[in-house]
Amino acid sequence: MTEDEKDSKLRDRWLGRLQREDQAHKEFRKVGKEATGAFQSEREDKRDTLYPVFWANAGITHSASFNRQPKPDVRRRLNDSQGDKQLALMIERAIAYQQDTTPFDDHSNRAVREFIVAGLGCTRLYLKTDTATAPVINPLTGEPVVGEDGEPMTQEIVSGQYVCPEYIPWDKFRWEPNKDWEDVDWIGFDHFLTGAEIEEQFDKEVQGAHGTEPTGTGSDTNKLRAQKYANQYLVHEIWDRKTRTVVFVCDAVEEVLRETPDPLKLKDFYPCPRPMMMGVRTGELIPTPEYTYVKHLCDDANTLTSRIRNLVGTVRDVGYYDAAFIELQSIMSAPDGTRVPLANLLERLGGVAGLQNVLVSVDNTPKVTVIATLMQQREGVKSELYELTGISDIVRGASDANETATAQQLKGKWANVRLSEKMREVSLHFRGIFRIMAELIAEHFEPAQMLAQTGIEVTPEQIETLRSDMSRSYAIDVETDSTIAQDEQQEKTDRLEFVKTITEYLGAMAPLQNAVPADLTNALLTFVTRSFRHGRLIEEQIEQLPGTQQQLQTLNQQMQQAQQQVEQLTAQLQQQGKQLQDTNERKESREDFKAQSEHQAKQAEAAKDMAQVELARNKDFREANAPPPVARVA
Q1: Residue 509 vs residue 146, higher pLDDT
Q2: Taking a C-beta distance cutoff of 8 angstroms, is the pair 394, 412 a contact?
Q3: How confident is the model at residue 612 (pLDDT cuts 50, 70, 90)?
Q4: What is the structure's pLDDT at 486?
Q5: Is the CB of residue 453 less than 8 Å from the CB of residue 94?
Q6: Alpha-carbon distance 91 to 267, whole Å?
Q7: Is pLDDT above 80 for 422?
Q8: Interatomic CA distance for residues 581 and 614, integer angstroms
Q9: How far apart are the C-alpha atoms of 504 and 525, rounded to whole Å?
Q10: Which phi-psi region, left, alpha or beta, contains residue 331 (left: φ > 0; alpha: ψ -120 to 50)?
Q11: Count of CB atoms situated within 10 Å of the CB of 262
Q12: What is the end-to-end Cα distance of the chain in Å, rounded?
C-alpha cells in the first residue's frame, strides 16, 4: 500500500468517526443551538425575544460562578523540602505572569458564558515562542564572532515564551462518545479555512477551492456556520491519545492534511482539561443545557410580554362627541389646563351642568385589568424560573423590607447551594488549566525565561525535576483559589474569626509548652489553620517552628549553658569571698594600727602635760630662790 493510499484510508476512517460522533451528539447540539439562539435573540422561528429572561438569568449565573480571574495556588507536597518550595513559588509566579501577559480573562469569560448558556465550555492552551536575531559572541573574548565573509555571525535566540489560552466555541469541540472523560481516546477542534489558507498551511490543494460553495462534514450548526463565509471549508483537528498524534483532515481534500507526533509532550496528551459540562447524562458523557428545563417558562414569559404589548397599544384616550359642538374638536388636542370658550354654552346644553352627555370616552378599564393580570402572571413565571435555576433574590441583589435580618442571613448563607455544581465545574476546569500551564512551563520553558518571568533562578537539579512528570508531581501540587467573589464584610468576619481562634489556641497552649511535645503542638496548630482559607500565610511560619527533637536539643544546650554559668558563678563567688576575707583582714589590721596609734598619741599627750607641769614647777622654784638685785653705783 502506497503512502497516498494510507493517507486516504486514514482520512476516510477519521471522517467516519466524526460522522458517528456527530450523530451521537446531535440532540445536544440541537438544544445547544436553541439555547444560544434564545440567549442571543437569534431564534429559528424568527420570533423576537421580547422579554430576554433567559439572557438575564444566564448573566446572573455567570457572575455568580465566575466573578473574578482565578489565582494559582502552587504548593510543595513535602513540607521539609526547601528546594520544592522554591520550585512551587517559581511555577506560581510563572502562571501569574502568563495570566497578565495573555488574553486569559477574555477567553475564560467566554468559555464560562458558553458553559452557562449551551451547557459546554472549553479552553485549550498552546505554546507561543518569540525569537530574535542576535550576534554570536565569543565566550572567551566577549567579542562578536566574524564569519569567513567578514560579516558578524548571527543566531536565532528565544526572546519570549508564553502559554496562551484559546476559547473554543461549544459547537466546534468534538469528543469520542463514551461514558467517562478518562475513557475518551480522541477529541477534535473544528476550523473554517479558505482554500488559500489550506494550501498555505498544509501545502495541499483543495478540490474546487475557487468555487462558490463551501463544503464541510459535521453538525448542522457547523454547516450553517460555513455558509456565512465564501469559499470556506471545514477542517478537523483531531488529537488521538492512543497514537499520541495530531491529525488534520478535510473532506475537500482526498488525503490527510497533516499528521504530527505529540507536539506538547503532555502527560495526559490533550491540550485542554475536561470541558465544563452541565447536567451530564447517566451513562453518557453528554451535557444537557439548562435551557432544556426552562424553555417553556421562557416561551411563556415571551408570550405574556407579547400580549401585554399588544394590549398596551390598544389602550388609548379616544371617544365621541356631538357633531353639533364643532368647537369640541379643539379640546381633543389642547394641552393640559386649557379653557376653550363656547358661545351660548348654557343655552346650547339645555341646562345640563356638564359635557358628559355630549362627550363619550371609550372605557379602557377591562384592558387595563387584563394587562395587570398578565404582568402578575409574568412575575409568577419569573419566580418559577428563579426557583428552578436556584437564583435567590440575594444573588440578584433584590431584598424584601418585610423580611427579618435572620431570614436575609439564611438566604445569603444558602444562596449558592443550587449553584454549587456549576461553581465546582468552573473551579475544576481552571484547576486543570493551571496544571497544564505548569506542565508546559516546566517542560518547554528555558531557564533564562523562567528567571526573567519569576525572578527565581533554578539549579540544573531543579530543572531535571521539572522536566520529569513523576518527579514534578511528587514535588509540587497545583491548585486554584475560588473564582467566586467574596463578600467584603464576610471576608472581614472570616479574618477576625481566624485571628481570634489562633489567639485563643496559643493562649491555651502557652502554659503547656514545656509539657506537650513541640511536634504535637505544631501539628495541632497546622490542623487549626488549614480549616481557614487564609491559613496558608500562617502555615509557612509554623513550619519554621522547632520540632520535638529540635526542642530537646535546644533544652540540652540550654542546660549545658546553665551548668557552665553556675560553675562560672561559683568560681566568681569563691574569688569574691577570698577578696572579702583579705579585705576583712586588712580592715582588722588597720583598726589595730589605728588603736595603737591612738594609744601612743594619748601617751605622748600625757607626757607633754607632765613636762609642762614640771617646767612650770622649775620656773616657780627659780623665781623663789633667786638673789636680790644689786644696786647700781652712780
Answers
A1: 146
A2: yes
A3: confident
A4: 52
A5: yes
A6: 17
A7: yes
A8: 49
A9: 11
A10: alpha
A11: 14
A12: 192
Return the pLDDT at 538: 61
Name the average pLDDT for the chain.
Answer: 77
Quote the cell numbers at residue 494.
472570616
Q: Where are the beta strands (DSSP E) in 72-177?
A: 72-76, 120-135, 154-168, 173-175
In this structure, how many other beta carbons lie within 10 angstroms of the beta carbon of residue 499? 13
Retrieve residue 178's grid coordinates: 463514551
**Residue 63, all three cell numbers:** 457572575
- Sign, CA dihedral 325-327-328-329, equals positive
Cβ atoms within 10 Å of 180's Cβ, excluding its own: 11
Write the CA distances from 251 to 173, 210, 433, integer angstroms: 18, 15, 32
C-alpha to C-alpha distance for 66 and 64, rounded to whole angstroms = 6
**The C-alpha cell of 320 is what?**
365621541
Q: 277, 119 in Cβ contact below 8 A?
A: yes
Greatest CA separation found in the chain? 198
Residue 140's beta-bridge partner residues?
none
3-state secondary structure of 250: coil
Report percent pLDDT > 90 for the chain: 21
According to the model, what pLDDT value does residue 414 have? 57
Instruction: Give which of 48, 96, 37 is closest to 69, Cα–Cα.
Output: 96
Least confident range from 260-264, 389-393, 438-442, 553-557: namely 553-557
Backbone angles phi, psi at 331, to 5 degrees: -70, -35
Alpha carbon 384 to chain centroid distance? 33
Phi-psi domain of 436 (left: phi exceeds 0; alpha: psi -120 through 50; beta: other): alpha
DSSP state of 171: G
Residues 431/424, Cβ–Cβ less than 8 Å: no
pLDDT of 228 strictly over 70: no
CA distances to 61, 174, 359, 420, 567 from 248, rounded to whole Å, are: 37, 14, 80, 38, 86
Per-residue confidence (pLDDT) for residue 350, from 0 to 100: 64
Type of residue at 184: V
Cα 549 off chain centre by: 39
pLDDT at 167 over 80: yes
Query: Given the C-alpha cell 525565561, which residue does it identify?
Result: 449
The band of 634, judged by pLDDT with boundaries at 50, 70 and 90, is very low
Radius of gyration of the chain, Cα coordinates, nearest whole angstrom: 49
Whose cell is 564572532? That residue is 145
